[in-house]
């Protein structure tokens, strides 16, 4: 059964769209088709946040609110969801939402162009979390750039909005008050009604010059796998945090888009006694939610992985399947021994994650095969004391692409290193283990001589490139120094900048 | 008028000032529009029927002769309606603001990678942008000069070298007890206004043109469009309600964008919108000038400067643009806050085959100050003294040592008391001692602290630009339309000028409508730049309001039978002798009495005179001052840094709006911090800018805000000159407070060498640059140890 109609809600209104290029972004649909111009384009690549909108969706019987970048979200991915933009917030009587009112009172806007995006990120926070601390607020706003204010008044607004009265509004109440709110229940029911069966969403659109674009969004894993066999050249679409740029920046022709975001089985996160399996449709934010309790060492990776709106849209498996040499998740996952589950038709196979990458943009995937899930072991396979670190080095703390990313895991018994899995991003054409360096450390204490040997071995493992993010020399030097830091960490010497306590007076 | 209603003798207990009067911390006039998404930027305006969308075709060589250009595939692409090249320009192929060396479209010679070659007009934006990539151009490569060093070697300039000499530099250097020299560099900076360049041109009857342009200088865009179209100024109207940020990037650059849209509109007879996408905006439009500064300084045992020599070499890019005035201002600010007994400055305005650099907040000031602060820091480290001590020792005096190297006597120096106050409030001395102690037991993380001053000259150095006009109408219901030549880019100018009028006319701010900057309403306006917006336009609007007030006073005195000095403007009311009535009633009565309720206002800054040939005189009406103390930490393994705390004290005189001024101070500081730390423009060896989007070019984000950030306006501040309500300009000066971060980073690096060596660091202090500096320091220490 197929459906050829996108159906979603905007301000409680049913929107049904049939004949539209499926590569139309949410932003362009809002601005160009609806003349709803509050949402702005600042970069068209998901890096500035001026286009931030909020999406509500039904998730396990409750509403889930997410801020995403409208500039790289494709309109068909809204099917079955509710869209809210900056125009949605003011009440019919013109009363501002607390997120808006607090921004006015805190002097949080100057030129105003980034403001709708900030307001929507704040609205997304307001809808999901009752009493965020400063770190949560910063995490929420990590994907919104402001060039005028310097952020202080916006951070003030984020706290102040919770102290303002909630308006009499037709908006569904935030999740922390939703149990008493009929509007939230109504919205949930309507969303569940749209996605009530296993219909595949099949859109096709022919441009004036005859170019055909198809968008296929199955609901079941079986249908998805079958469609990919039928269209082995299809572009698999998940969070579109990369594919979106192929459209907005590279003007690439994408004749068939196969969307996995509706596939129920791929949205699963399964926890067993010794593994955590994360499906291909699970967003980065949800994935980290489940990974961090087992691996608190990956907190920095999560916090500095792109931005909140990107993590709300992008998927962990998308990052893996994309296989960029500068993707942040892979070095950490390789270090902790993750495996990927691949599927083609009904056949499945499993690979150590590092084995997926054959060369630059080359993966061990046959036509019709896709990354179904990633499996993360929950316990170290070896005895002894293990140390896991995931460190990112980039020009900016928030939302930057790594110059070097290190995922480091070592095990030591009685001071002797017994196991080492040292994986790096930004150092080669793929995310890769430093096998010679690992070998140089195993079976000896992590002393000055071992460190010197490891530094040397690293130069045999990698010949990094120079580009706008860093020079080859710097990349090598930092990779070596991260091994130094690992050694210092074993002896408890270092303090990290991130955790440095800031007090008015040094003790 | 109904006399029973309006004429009363009851004493009226009115508030002291009307709502929103000057001095009040009022919200930005568009704040509610901003937060609801209903503030209209040019791309948000309803599109007229048959609007075309334009995209620019960019050159893909840094320096080359164009051998052939084949646009057939562009023309044949879906949705394309027309293609424009230089041959389609009816008038001048030029948008140079000062020197005519900026072609709208390059013709036979390409001068930077990304220069505009042609434009595509299509039915939608996507079609235009996709088609613009289909051109086939053959280039014959020519030698490309890409960096300042290349240009110094090749001797290429956009403008002649300029020298400034004051005192006997050679003699003083020879006699000085100590001499140091060095070379330091800082990078450029992309403005990264959130709204990219945009123009929307609408053809009108009889070959006239209406252009909406995101521009800090609509009056110049009007002339540039007129020249390109081959028509007169009277035939072009340019309007701008607001920009999504400017920062100097929309001062001279919008002319090209507007001209292309207007040429397209003229050629097709259809409205044309040209909105640059972010990458094209960053590649095509100018940035802050990067500088190489070579210096030599002589000083005594206490660290007091005897003489200093600077060679300031800046990368202008391929054309002059505003480089002359920017490099001049860098020379004027080579002193920052310090008295220079003898000084020699040589300024090289280097021509390179890169995008033409342009105005950016500070306009050469930050660049000049970067140099002298480097000198002061080096002196302190050489002598093993606290850099703040050396700074204060060299401050300009109040009654002596108070004449700048360009001959202006400083009459309003408040830096000493401001520094004292900040030093105390931020506990500089005790924290500096504690940091040194902490560093001694922290091998990997090092902290640093610095307190730096800012003195910034206020006025356009081109004296003729220091003028402004305003237009004010009072309607018969007592509401007011206010217009002036300034533009709103987020800095709150429209709010402040409305507050001036509210105070002058004693009416609530919601009775005043500020309308879009419009060349048809106020002609020949200067750019909103040089921090001068409120100073100039506030005074012009005040002048207009006073003219109306005078007419109303004369009218009221006559009508209510009292002397003019018995007419008093109370909040929203007027008392004339024993009669009191509302402002609205008076306005209506005045109209009935055939009194003109419309006035223009005009202002020119007094007391400024400056000879640009001798670089001497009184270029600045007054100075703005500030001081900042920053504490940072660096990771000596990776070179990463983090600002832990900043304290700022800044002088805005009597603030027109403390909330807006605080926003300017904080925002300027963070932007300056970005310039000096993370914002790196990176060109490859082919002259391609590879950091042309926020994915690669990093401006400060929310986590970069110092966790402790104490920012205060100086309560004792007052402008010693008769500025608008004794306020001070605030747009640019706070930018340079970020030098405190820069010097705190250097202090932290110095800690890694036990404070014995002077770190060599170039801006921006990316992790890579900090690690390079640390490694150089460590190598030096290692070789010392080996020698010992």
From TrEMBL, chain A:
Family annotation (SUPFAM superfamilies): 2Fe-2S ferredoxin-like, CO dehydrogenase flavoprotein C-terminal domain-like, CO dehydrogenase ISP C-domain like, FAD-binding/transporter-associated domain-like
Start and end residues of each FAD-binding PCMH-type domain: 208-381
Coiled-coil spans in chain: none
Keywords: FAD, Flavoprotein, Iron, Metal-binding, Oxidoreductase
Xref: PROSITE patterns: 2FE2S_FER_1, 2FE2S_FER_2, FAD_PCMH
InterPro entries: 2Fe-2S-bd, 2Fe-2S-bd_dom_sf, 2Fe-2S_ferredoxin-like_sf, 2Fe-2S_ferredoxin-type, 2Fe2S_fd_BS, Ald_Oxase/xanthine_DH-like, Beta-grasp_dom_sf, CO_DH_flav_C
Gene Ontology molecular functions: 2 iron, 2 sulfur cluster binding; FAD binding; iron ion binding; xanthine dehydrogenase activity
Residue ranges occupied by any 2Fe-2S ferredoxin-type domain in the UniProt entry: 4-89
Matches recorded under NCBIfam families: xanthine_xdhA (TIGR02963)
Protein's recorded name: Xanthine dehydrogenase small subunit
Species, as recorded: Parazoarcus communis SWub3 = DSM 12120
Name of the coding gene: xdhA
Automatic annotation (TrEMBL), chain B:
NCBIfam families associated with the record: xanthine_xdhB (TIGR02965)
Highest classification ranks of the organism: Bacteria, Pseudomonadati, Pseudomonadota, Betaproteobacteria, Rhodocyclales
Gene Ontology molecular function, alphabetical: 2 iron, 2 sulfur cluster binding; iron ion binding; molybdenum ion binding; oxidoreductase activity
Protein name per its UniProtKB record: Xanthine dehydrogenase molybdopterin binding subunit
InterPro entries in the record: Ald_Oxase/Xan_DH_a/b, Ald_Oxase/Xan_DH_a/b_sf, Ald_Oxase/xanthine_DH-like, AldOxase/xan_DH_MoCoBD1, AldOxase/xan_DH_MoCoBD2, AldOxase/xan_DH_Mopterin-bd_sf, Xanthine_DH_Mopterin-bd_su
Gene3D superfamilies (alphabetical): Aldehyde oxidase/xanthine dehydrogenase, a/b hammerhead, Aldehyde oxidase/xanthine dehydrogenase, molybdopterin binding domain
Cofactor needs: [2Fe-2S] cluster; FAD; Mo-molybdopterin; Mo-molybdopterin cytosine dinucleotide
Family recorded in the similarity comment: Belongs to the xanthine dehydrogenase family.
UniProt-listed SUPFAM superfamilies: CO dehydrogenase molybdoprotein N-domain-like (SSF54665), Molybdenum cofactor-binding domain (SSF56003)
Ranges annotated as spanning the membrane: none
Domain of life from the UniProt record: Bacteria
UniProt entry keywords in alphabetical sequence: 2Fe-2S, Iron, Iron-sulfur, Metal-binding, Molybdenum, Oxidoreductase
Domain Aldehyde oxidase/xanthine dehydrogenase a/b hammerhead: from-to ranges: 36-143
């Amino acid at each position: 059964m197929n459906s050829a109609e996108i159906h979603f809600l905007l301000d409680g209104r049913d929107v049904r769209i049939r004949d539209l290029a499926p590569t139309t972004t949410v932003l362009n649909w809002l601005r160009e088709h609806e003349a709803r111009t509050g949402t702005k384009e600042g970069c068209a690549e998901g890096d500035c946040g001026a286009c931030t909108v909020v999406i509500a969706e039904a998730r396990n019987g409750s509403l889930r609110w997410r801020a995403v970048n409208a500039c790289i979200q494709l309109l068909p991915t809204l099917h079955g969801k509710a869209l809210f933009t900056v125009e949605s917030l003011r009440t019919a009587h013109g009363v501002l939402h607390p997120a808006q009112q607090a921004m006015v009172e805190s002097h949080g806007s100057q030129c105003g162009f980034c403001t709708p995006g900030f307001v929507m990120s704040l609205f997304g926070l307001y809808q999901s979390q009752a009493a965020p601390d400063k770190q949560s607020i910063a995490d929420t706003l990590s994907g919104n750039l402001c060039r005028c204010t310097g952020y202080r008044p916006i951070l003030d607004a984020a706290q102040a909005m919770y102290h303002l009265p909630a308006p009499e509004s037709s908006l569904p109440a935030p999740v922390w008050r939703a149990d008493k709110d009929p509007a939230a229940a109504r919205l949930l029911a309507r969303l569940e009604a749209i996605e009530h069966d296993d219909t595949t969403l099949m859109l096709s659109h022919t441009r004036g010059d005859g170019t055909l674009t198809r968008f296929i969004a199955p609901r079941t894993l079986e249908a998805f796998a079958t469609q990919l066999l039928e269209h082995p050249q299809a572009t698999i679409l998940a969070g579109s945090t990369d594919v979106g740029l192929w459209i907005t920046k590279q003007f690439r022709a994408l004749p068939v888009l196969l969307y996995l975001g509706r596939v129920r089985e791929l949205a699963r996160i399964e926890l067993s006694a010794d593994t955590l399996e994360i499906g291909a449709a699970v967003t980065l934010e949800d994935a980290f939610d489940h990974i961090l309790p087992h691996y608190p060492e990956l907190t920095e990776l999560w916090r500095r992985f792109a931005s909140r709106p990107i993590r709300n849209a992008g998927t962990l498996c998308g990052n893996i399947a994309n296989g960029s040499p500068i993707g942040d998740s892979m070095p950490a996952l390789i270090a902790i021994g993750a495996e990927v589950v691949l599927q083609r038709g009904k056949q499945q196979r499993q690979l150590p994650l590092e084995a997926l990458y054959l060369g630059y943009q080359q993966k061990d995937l046959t036509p019709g095969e896709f990354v179904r899930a990633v499996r993360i072991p929950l316990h170290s396979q070896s005895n002894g004391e293990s140390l896991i670190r995931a460190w990112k080095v980039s020009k900016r703390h928030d939302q930057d692409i790594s110059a070097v990313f290190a995922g480091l895991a070592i095990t030591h018994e009685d001071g002797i290193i017994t196991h080492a899995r040292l994986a790096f991003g930004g150092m080669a054409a793929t995310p890769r283990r430093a096998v010679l360096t690992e070998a140089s450390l195993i079976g000896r204490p992590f002393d000055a001589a071992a460190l010197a040997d490891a530094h040397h071995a690293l130069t045999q493992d990698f010949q990094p490139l120079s580009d706008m993010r860093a020079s080859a020399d710097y990349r090598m030097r930092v990779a070596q120094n991260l091994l130094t830091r690992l050694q210092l960490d074993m002896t408890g010497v270092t303090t990290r900048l991130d955790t440095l306590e800031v007090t008015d007076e040094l003790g | 008028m109904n006399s029973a209603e309006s004429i009363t003798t009851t004493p009226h207990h009115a508030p002291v000032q009307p709502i929103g009067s000057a001095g009040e911390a009022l919200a930005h006039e568009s704040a509610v529009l901003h937060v609801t998404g209903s503030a209209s930027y040019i791309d948000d305006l309803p599109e007229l029927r048959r609007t075309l969308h334009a995209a620019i075709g960019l050159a893909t060589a840094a320096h080359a002769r164009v051998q052939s250009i084949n646009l057939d595939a562009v023309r044949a692409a879906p949705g394309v309606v027309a293609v424009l090249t230089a041959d389609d320009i009816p008038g001048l192929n030029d948008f140079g603001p000062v020197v005519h060396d900026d072609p709208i479209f390059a013709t036979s010679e390409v001068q930077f990678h990304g220069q505009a070659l042609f434009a595509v007009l299509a039915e939608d934006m996507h079609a235009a942008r996709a088609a613009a990539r289909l051109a086939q151009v053959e280039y014959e490569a020519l030698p490309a000069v890409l960096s300042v060093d290349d240009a110094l070697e090749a001797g290429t300039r956009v403008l002649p070298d300029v020298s400034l000499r004051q005192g006997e530099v050679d003699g003083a250097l020879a006699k000085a007890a100590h001499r140091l020299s060095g070379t330091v560099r800082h990078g450029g900076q992309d403005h990264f206004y959130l709204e990219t360049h945009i123009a929307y041109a609408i053809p009108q009857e009889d070959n006239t043109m209406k252009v909406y342009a995101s521009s800090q200088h609509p009056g110049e865009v009007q002339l540039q469009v007129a020249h390109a179209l081959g028509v007169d100024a009277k035939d072009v109207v340019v309007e701008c309600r607001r920009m999504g940020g400017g920062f100097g990037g929309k001062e001279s650059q919008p002319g090209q964008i507007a001209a292309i849209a207007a040429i397209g509109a003229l050629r097709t007879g259809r409205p044309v919108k040209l909105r640059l996408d972010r990458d094209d905006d960053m590649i095509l439009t100018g940035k802050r000038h990067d500088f190489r500064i070579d210096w030599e300084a002589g000083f005594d045992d206490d660290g007091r400067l005897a003489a200093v020599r600077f060679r300031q070499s800046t990368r202008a890019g391929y054309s002059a643009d505003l480089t002359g005035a920017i490099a001049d201002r860098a020379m004027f600010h080579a002193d920052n806050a310090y008295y220079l007994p003898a000084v020699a400055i040589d300024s090289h305005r280097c021509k390179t085959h890169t995008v033409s650099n342009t105005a950016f907040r500070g306009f050469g000031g930050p660049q000049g100050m970067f140099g002298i602060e480097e000198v002061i820091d080096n002196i302190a480290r050489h002598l093993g003294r606290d850099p703040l001590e050396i700074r204060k020792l060299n401050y300009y005096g109040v009654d002596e040592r108070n004449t700048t190297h360009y001959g202006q006597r400083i009459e309003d120096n408040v830096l000493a008391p401001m520094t004292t106050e900040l030093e105390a409030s931020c506990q500089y001395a005790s924290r500096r001692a504690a940091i040194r102690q902490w560093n001694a037991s922290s091998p990997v993380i090092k902290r640093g602290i610095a307190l730096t001053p800012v003195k910034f000259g206020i006025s356009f150095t081109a004296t003729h630009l220091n003028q402004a006009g305003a237009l004010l109408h009072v309607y018969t219901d007592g509401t007011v339309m206010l217009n002036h030549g300034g533009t709103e880019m987020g800095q709150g100018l429209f709010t402040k000028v409305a507050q001036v009028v509210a105070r002058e006319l004693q009416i609530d701010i919601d009775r005043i409508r500020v309308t879009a900057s419009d060349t048809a309403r106020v002609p020949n306006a200067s750019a909103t730049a040089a921090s001068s917006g409120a100073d100039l336009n506030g005074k012009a609007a005040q002048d207009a309001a006073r003219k109306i007030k005078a007419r109303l006073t004369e009218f009221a005195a006559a009508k209510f039978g009292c002397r003019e000095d018995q007419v008093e403007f109370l909040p929203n009311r007027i008392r004339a002798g024993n009669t009191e009535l509302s402002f609205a009633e008076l306005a209506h009565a005045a109209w009935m009495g055939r009194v003109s309720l419309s006035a223009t206002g005009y202002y020119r800054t007094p007391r400024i005179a400056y000879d640009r040939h001798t670089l001497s005189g009184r270029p600045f009406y007054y100075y703005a001052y500030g001081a900042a103390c920053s504490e940072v930490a660096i990771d000596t393994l990776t070179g990463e840094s983090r600002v832990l705390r900043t304290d700022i004290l800044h002088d805005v005189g009597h603030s027109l709006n403390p909330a807006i001024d605080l926003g300017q101070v904080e925002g300027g500081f963070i932007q300056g911090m970005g310039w000096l730390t993370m914002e790196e423009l990176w060109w490859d060896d082919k002259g391609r800018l590879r950091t042309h989007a926020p994915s690669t070019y990093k401006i400060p984000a929310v986590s970069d805000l110092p966790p402790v950030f104490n920012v205060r306006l100086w309560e004792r501040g007052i402008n010693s000159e008769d500025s608008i309500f004794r306020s001070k300009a605030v747009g640019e000066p706070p930018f340079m407070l970020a030098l405190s971060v820069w010097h705190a980073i250097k202090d932290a690096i110095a800690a890694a060498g036990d404070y014995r060596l002077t770190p060599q660091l170039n801006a921006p202090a990316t992790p890579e640059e900090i690690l390079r500096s640390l490694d150089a320091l460590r190598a030096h220490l290692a070789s010392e140890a080996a020698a010992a």
